[in-house]
Write a structure and sequence with these properties.
With about 325 residues, the chain is an alpha+beta fold. Helices cover about 55% and strands about 20% of the residues. The longest helix is centred in the middle third of the chain and has 46 residues.
Length: about 325
């Protein structure tokens, strides 16, 4: 189970949620792409997706696909790797250039290759220049990314890049108020905190294993002390301390070490328990209940987190239950 939690922690790191904050509208979309673009120029990086279904034609082949209108910092924020070429620039966005970026699925279905930069395709009755191919992780659905200055539409969700200097989650939430984004009309999800929870669950599980081991050792040390101390108390009634030390040096040394180990174990136990408590207190508002936050815009990016976050929590709780049962049976055996 620990290995599974470690795998989830490493896999989550590969998804690059660690610097993202999601704001999803609870009502109808009301933000225009130009408003968000002006905000990005003045404040911090924000991106979005405006989806529509269309079809692309190349080499006499027509492919139904999803067109996603966005801005030039989209790839930077979502950390999608480029397979060929680049992403359209802010200059191209402002100029309204018909530049398109295909995902790997669309590139292969239309051209049979990633090497498509410089070629053209036809969409919405116009010719578009392909400037790059990116890997968005979707092997089934063909997509094309275009400047929202051309595709138009309104924005219902925003994804913010957190760089912690000074754009942390609190700074971003406060800054988004300039766009009318408040916690009462948007669902705001700190994806970086949700991502960190995978590593934190592994840490808590390891700490819990250490706590279990320490408790068993403390039990053994305490049992030794309770057995030896009455004996030495009786011996002191018959012998001087120096005589007792000479006669039972080995036993006294073992008892002293057990007492020191007991004190050190208690200190370690308290320290680990406080660490576990501090971590667990940060989990109170990790992800909102329900599925709406993971649907619609950025559903492809959020799909891994949406699937594996509850799985990770269930595995963590099962591991804790197993550790508690192990402790119970070990202590129960001691009492026999």
């Amino acid at each position: 189970m620990l290995a599974a939690l470690a795998w989830l922690s490493l896999r989550c790191a590969d998804e690059h949620y660690d610097r993202l904050l999601l704001a999803k509208s609870a009502s109808a979309p009301n933000l225009s792409p130009q408003t968000v673009e002006d905000f990005c120029a003045e404040e911090f990086l924000v991106t979005y997706e405006i989806e529509c279904q269309t079809a692309a034609e190349a080499h006499n082949y027509r492919l139904p696909l999803t067109m996603i209108g966005t801005n030039s910092c989209y790839r930077q924020i979502l950390s999608y790797p480029l397979l060929n070429g680049g992403f359209f620039s802010a200059v191209a966005w402002q100029a309204g250039n018909k530049e398109a970026v295909l995902n790997a699925t669309a590139a292969f279905k239309l051209f049979g290759s990633y090497q498509t930069t410089g070629q053209t395709l036809k969409m919405e009755g116009a010719n578009w220049l392909i400037v790059g191919v990116l890997d968005d992780g979707d092997a089934e659905n063909p997509r094309v990314y275009v400047p929202a200055s051309i595709s138009g539409g309104n924005i219902d969700s925003l994804l913010v890049l957190l760089d912690n200097q000074p754009v942390n989650a609190d700074y971003a939430i406060n800054g988004l108020k300039q766009l009318g984004v408040y916690e009462h009309n948007y669902t705001i999800v700190d994806l970086s905190a949700a991502s960190a929870a995978f590593a934190q669950r592994l840490t808590v599980a390891l700490y819990t294993v250490l706590i279990l081991i320490i408790l068993l050792l403390l039990r053994r040390c305490a049992g030794l002390l309770f057995k030896r101390l009455p004996f030495y108390r009786e011996q002191l009634k018959q012998l001087y301390p120096r005589e007792l030390l000479t006669a039972h040096f080995g036993g006294l040394l073992t008892t002293t070490l057990a007492a020191l180990a007991l004190l050190a174990g208690i200190a370690a136990l308290v320290t680990l328990a406080l660490q576990v408590l501090a971590i667990c207190l940060t989990w109170k508002d990790l992800l909102p209940t329900g599925h709406a936050w993971a649907l619609g815009s950025f559903a492809n990016k959020l799909s891994w987190l949406h699937t594996w976050h509850p799985v990770g929590m269930i595995m963590f709780l099962i591991l804790l239950a197993v550790l508690v049962l192990i402790l119970y049976f070990c202590l129960r055996q001691k009492y026999k």
